[in-house]
Amino acid sequence: MTTQPKSDFLRVMIERGFMADCTDLDALDAALIKGVVPAYIGFDATAKSLHVGSLIQIMMLRWLQKTGHKPITLMGGGTTKVGDPSFRADERPLLDDAAIQANIDGIQKVFAAYVTYGDGATDAVMLNNDEWLSGLKYIEFLRDIGRHFSVNRMLAFESVKSRLDREQSLSFLEFNYMILQAYDFMELNRRYGCLLQMGGSDQWGNIVNGIDLTRRVLDHEVYGLTSPLLETADGRKMGKSQDGAVWLNADMCAPYTFWQFWRNTMDADVGRFLKLYTELPVDECDRLGALAGSEINAAKIILANEVTTLLHGAEAAQAAEATAREVFEKGGVGDDLPTLEVSASDIGDGMSIVQLIVKSGLAKSGKDAKRLIAENGAKLDDAPLTDAGLMIDANALSSPIKLSAGKKRHALVKLAD
């Protein structure tokens, strides 16, 4: 495309940094101007929650709806039974139907915070590809769909090639995944008039396969658009923290912990993340991202508040900021800190401080907790913690105690009522 796109959606995608590649930008732009474009992103149900790494795709669906188009959130109830091999070193563990459904139930809670579901022209719909995949007759499927796929071409896709180059096993089950994802796009076009599939740039090959299959079988033109695979400025995969994945469901990652993740954004990432994960005007994102010194911390608080408000609501964002100020500026406890409740029976004659650090999520193992203490990185009620053998009994928890790992990670421990 030689000129700026005319459609609001593509302008937003380009201006805010969402777009890596598009299969036919001019034709997609024309379709977006012509009328409501249904577009989908698929999410496999491999866990009970999505994590921050999926948030860029969720924001793309939100902007799609805000600019007058129809989001389709496709749950991979069927494809999760196979497992996406894209850029993985090993095969995903297979889940049974009950586990997949439980994961879908958990994931569904997040989407309603970002898009509006309903029966209107631009209202979002949630679908499950198990609806059409589980009923497939294998021989007919191979005959009608499999013949459109060249094994030579499938082996050339980077996601497959990288696995084979490392001489790591790629099961025939996983190899089928790209055919099933292509079939999803065709079925969504046939059933719901879906014209666009979006996803991370690691999905480019799968998306192109779906476009090609839809053209061959239905003789319909459809499009693909991918977002960049994000890394933080220090090279870490987006969505990962010191303690693992940053989940979007509140029961797996407390709003305060979620807020703190964004507050700890590296200086170099602030402007970019404001564009991708908030709805602040682009000029304001650029202004805030260009701040330096102590001023950039104010921009990080704005980022944390805006992102937390979208997911958990304004009240949760305000509570998280208030707790952060209490903890960091005043040395207090803060009402919204992640809290570990232990019963008197669990404590018995006493529980080691190492166990409490692990149970509160500040360390992954007893070994990590002991190393934290040995390296002077742990505090108990803001005082340095030097004794890894310290035992905490019920009397010590007559009022909550505050544990800290470094300067930014804190938790409360209190007796259960």
Please give a quick description of this structure.
With 417 residues, this protein is an alpha/beta fold. Helices cover 44% and strands 14% of the residues. A 6-stranded mixed sheet has the order 1-6-5-2-3-4, with helices on both faces.
Distance, first to last CA: 63 Å
Question: Outline, from the CA principal axes?
Answer: globular
* Class from secondary-structure proportions: alpha/beta
Count, helices: 19
The parts where pLDDT drops under 50 for at least 5 residues are 85-91
Describe the overall structure.
The protein has 417 residues and is α/β, with parallel strands linked by helices. Helices cover 44% and strands 14% of the residues. It has 19 helices and 15 strands. The protein has helices at residues 8-15, 25-34, 55-66, 97-111, 130-133, 138-144, 151-156, 158-165, 172-175, 177-192, 204-218, 255-263, 270-277, 282-289, 295-312, 314-328, 344-347, 353-359, 366-374, and strands spanning 21-22, 38-44, 70-76, 125-128, 196-200, 223-227, 240-241, 244-245, 339-342, 351-352, 378-380, 383-384, 391-392, 401-405, 409-415. Strand 2 (38-44), helix 3 (55-66) and strand 3 (70-76) form a beta-alpha-beta unit. Helix 12 runs antiparallel to helix 15 (295-312) and helix 18 packs across helix 19 (366-374). The model is unreliable at 85-91 (pLDDT under 50).
